[in-house]
Design a protein that fits this description.
The complex is a heterodimer of chains A (about 200) and B (about 475).
Chain A: H1 3-14, H2 38-47, E1 51-55, H3 58-66, E2 71-73, E3 87-88, H4 94-99, E4 102-105, E5 109-111, E6 116-119, E7 136-141, E8 146-147, H5 150-156, E9 163-166, E10 171-172, E11 180-181, E12 188-194
Parallel strand pairs in A: 1-12, 2-3, 2-4, 4-7, 5-8, 7-12
Antiparallel strand pairs in A: 5-6, 6-9, 10-11
Chain B: H1 18-26, H2 29-51, H3 56-72, H4 74-87, E1 91-95, H5 98-112, E2 116-119, H6 123-127, H7 130-136, E3 140-143, H8 146-153, H9 170-180, H10 192-209, E4 212-215, E5 219-221, E6 226-231, H11 235-241, E7 245-251, E8 255-256, H12 262-273, E9 281-286, E10 296-302, H13 306-310, H14 326-329, H15 332-337, H16 348-359, H17 376-380, H18 387-397, H19 401-415, H20 418-433, H21 445-450, H22 462-467
Parallel strand pairs in B: 1-10, 2-3, 2-4, 4-7, 5-8, 7-10
Antiparallel strand pairs in B: 5-6, 6-9
Helix pairs in contact in B: 3-12, 16-18, 19-20
Classes of the chains: A alpha/beta (about 200), B alpha/beta (about 475).
The structure holds iron/sulfur cluster.
Iron/sulfur cluster binds next to helix 14 of chain B.
């Protein structure tokens, strides 16, 4: 007998008592109750050590953050956002990505309640490696991408895509259970929150 | 053929019974200070972020019902998961026990021709002793979690589900790094950000040059074939993104029916475990994505005693566990003995009910007694596993004089402090309310519950009591 059949047979035998099929109570908060609170989003992002820039001038905000560093960006990020000398990811090597001073991406969804941004590898967010290796991640967020809660975010996302949920810079709680920023992922997370519809 | 986890492989059985192992830990005041500090910190953090959610109890009920639903429909959900993962370009393997899982993973790594794998912390691979199996095959497993790295470099054993090096404080970690980490800065301080920075530098090159990764999974969605890993440091993202081949070992109980169900667990898990509104990183992937991440994906579905747990009508809820470790952090026994005393990769209250069921009670017969039945674990559990009831149920299967001694010891820990004692009194009250009146409770708890008024806490502290024995 294959191990698959063996395991499935063991499970069916184990469930021989026909356990009840419970109803799932869905009376937790699922739908949006109020307009999203962008101020609270900023507070929650900052609480987990992300730096937030509220602006209507995306390229200005990015160039201030980057200074004279050099950034990479996925092909779908508008070139006018990017400082001169930026590299577009048309197949950069891991070493080239790791060497750059930062990465600029857009986002798919952001969650107020948890201070989370989610990337879904769309053309303006790029391959997962791109937002992983550089030490600085600049993420441009539009207000219409912001939802209040986790259930709303799950409903908006497409499960087949590679998804990365990011809540603050890389951190660990492994030393005496205190959150310490800065292990393997980007140690600096900047969110450019666009004030007017871009 | 027994459906329990086989002997001689993996880490579910200790070398000695709980009371003997606990005695070692109890004699180490530094260990107890580290543990007390850490668990106090985490309880405070967790309590604060849980209080922010007005619907925490509703989420717990949904999580609990979802897990019960999953267990009742396990064959269908596992086959659906297999179908979806396969359709998305992954390969699914079924492992009846630890030996088979180790063989599958080792063969897969061998076929790549690689000599080294990077690993992201996974309880399942620790349970089956995968690192030892890989080493025997000449393959070097590199643990990439900071805590696992501390454990690996310290030639030590993990002592907590979430924070395996919880028993080490910052100055001990610094000493381990200075002694064991090649190329470490000799001026390294014990400042936690500096310690984290040292791990970052040490592992960077390994991440970039290793072509096979092994992970566990927190959730596997049957409806979509999506796997999820919840983490903090970014080492998980490295392992799940950079290599050519990814091998994920997942217990069969980790399947989740539908995509939308993640909305429940992604709220419960981080708040209950690290006490964060959300952990820094969660990665989700579905099979293989051309041009992004590993192009070879293998999912190993692991039984290793889980079906034996499922067969027990009372005990099966232990399979609902999402490994948040909240029950460890509130447990008065764990706080005193630490994780090593439990002898298994699953310590604390969940370990006391899960390990004996995975191995068969006869192999872990003292663990069901490693508790004062105070009920704090039940209150803390985000999926409402009734650990005290399972403990009582298992005690009835393992009546055992040596174990009773452990029970005495466990109860005595609770008497050590008034706060803990209060919790025990509460448990005794609950038992009375349930009409159990001490039936099924071990001595001396049955005595308390049988009398109308609970006795005053004893004048003798636990340590005096222990020495006096
Ligand atoms: S039993 Fe509950 S509290 Fe304990 S680790 Fe599992 S989910 Fe968390």
């Amino acid at each position: 007998m294959s191990s698959k059949n063996l395991i499935l047979r063991r499970i069916r035998e184990a469930l021989g008592d026909n356990p009840a099929q419970p109803e799932i109570p869905r009376d937790y908060r699922r739908a949006a109750e109020a307009p999203v609170d962008l101020d609270l989003l900023v507070e929650r992002l900052e609480d987990y050590k992300a730096v937030v820039h509220r602006t209507s001038d995306i390229s200005d905000a990015i160039s201030r953050i980057v200074g004279d560093g050099q950034v990479v960006a996925p092909p779908g990020v508008p070139v006018e956002w990017l400082p001169r000398g930026s590299k577009t990811d048309n197949g950069l090597t891991a070493a080239e990505i790791a060497e750059s001073d930062g990465v600029v991406t857009a986002a798919a969804v952001a969650i107020v309640e948890t201070g989370t941004i989610v990337l879904d590898a769309s053309p303006d967010q790029g391959r997962r490696i791109l937002s992983l290796l550089p030490d600085l991640h600049i993420c441009v967020l539009r207000p219409d991408q912001v939802v209040a809660s986790v259930p709303e975010a799950v409903a908006r996302l497409t499960p087949g895509r590679p998804l990365t949920w990011i809540s603050g810079p890389s951190a660990t709680s492994d030393i005496e259970l205190n959150r310490v920023e800065g292990v393997h992922g980007p140690r600096n997370l900047h969110i450019v929150l666009v004030e007017e519809a871009a | 053929m027994s459906t329990h986890a086989p002997k001689g492989v993996g880490h579910l059985r200790g070398d000695e019974p709980f009371p003997a192992a606990a005695k070692v830990a109890l004699a180490n005041p530094q260990l107890r200070r580290n543990l007390q500090h850490a668990t106090t910190t985490i309880r405070g953090k967790s309590g604060r972020v849980i209080a922010e959610l007005p619907d925490w109890q509703e989420l717990r009920s949904a999580g609990s019902a979802l897990k019960a639903y999953t267990m009742a429909n396990l064959p269908r959900l596992l086959e659906q998961l297999e179908e979806k993962v396969t359709a998305a370009g992954g390969v699914v393997h079924w492992a009846a026990d630890a030996t088979e899982a180790n063989r599958i993973v080792t063969d897969l790594v061998r076929r790549t021709g690689e000599q080294r794998v990077i690993k992201v912390k996974s309880m399942a691979t620790q349970e089956i002793g995968l690192n030892e199996a890989l080493e025997e095959a000449g393959i070097t497993p590199v643990e990439t979690d900071l805590a696992e790295l501390i454990v690996q470099l310290g030639h030590d054993k993990p002592s907590h589900i979430l924070v395996p090096a919880i028993h080490r404080n910052r100055s001990e970690i610094r000493e381990i790094f200075l002694r064991e980490m090649p190329g470490v800065d000799p001026d390294l301080t014990d400042n936690p950000p500096d310690l984290a920075g040292a791990a970052r530098r040490y592992l960077r090159e390994t991440f970039l040059s290793t072509r096979v990764a092994v992970s566990g999974a927190n959730f596997g969605v049957a409806e979509t074939g999506t796997l999820a890993v919840v983490e903090s440091e970014g080492n998980g993202r490295m392992c799940l993104t950079l290599p050519d081949t990814l091998i994920t070992v997942m217990g069969i109980e980790k399947v989740v029916p539908a995509w939308a169900d993640l909305e429940v667990f992604l709220q419960l898990l981080p708040r209950a475990s690290t006490g964060e509104r959300m952990n820094p990183y969660t990665s989700m992937w579905t099979g293989v994505t051309p041009g992004d991440g590993p192009q070879n994906f293998h999912l190993v579905l692991l039984d290793n005693g889980r079906t034996a747990v499922l067969a027990d009508e009372v005990g099966r809820q232990a399979l609902h566990c999402i490994r948040c470790s909240a029950c460890l952090n509130v447990c008065p026994v764990y706080e005193r003995t630490g994780g090593h005393a439990y002898g298994s990769v699953y310590p604390g209250p969940i370990g006391a009910v899960l390990s004996p069921q995975l191995t068969g009670v006869e192999d872990n017969s003292s663990l069901p007694y490693a508790s004062s039945l105070c009920g704090a674990c039940f209150d803390a559990c985000p999926v409402k596993i009734d650990i005290p009831s399972i403990l009582v149920h298992l005690r009835n299967q393992a009546p055992h004089p040596r174990s009773e001694k452990a029970a005495m010891a466990a109860a005595a820990y609770a008497m050590d402090r008034p706060r803990v004692y209060e919790r025990a009194q509460k448990a005794a009250r609950i038992a009375k309310l349930l009409g159990k009146r001490g039936r099924g409770l071990p001595p001396p708890l049955n005595g308390w519950a049988a009398s109308r008024d609970l006795p005053e806490p004893p004048a003798e502290t636990f340590r005096d009591w222990w020495r006096g024995r």
